[in-house]
Amino acid sequence: MALKEKAAYLKGLADGLDFDKTTAEGKLIAAMLELLDEMTDTIDAIGEDMEYLGDYIEEIDKDLGELEEYCYEDDCDCCDCDDCDCDCDDCDCLACIDDEFEFDDEDEEEEENE
User: Fold this and answer.
1) pLDDT digits (tens, 9 = 90+) for 34-92
2) Are 60 and 50 a contacting pair, CB within 8 Å?
3) How many C-beta atoms lie closer than 10 Å to residue 19's C-beta?
4) How far apart are CA 37 and CA 33, in angstroms?
5) Is the pTM of this model over 0.70?
């Protein structure tokens, strides 16, 4: 039996007792039943949120896995070199750049020429 159904069952039992809601005890029972109903609504909403978040986390995990595969794949598609890490000196791949290669800054060249 679900939580909401159990709360409804208890409320039905209390209504069947035909208690006087004007007495102190009756007011207490009525307030407790109202609180119980609000708590079950809140717990149900939290459960729905948890289910949504669980699905969302699974989607993010799947996307992250695909991204990791794309970014950290072992094979280099830039050349035919078997062991290329896009840092090798053995191939003529334009994507492979030597670590010692220094890029010239056009602005520096213009300043030096002046």
Assistant:
1) 999 999 999 999 999 999 999 999 999 999 999 988 888 755 566 666 555 555 555 65
2) no
3) 15
4) 6
5) no
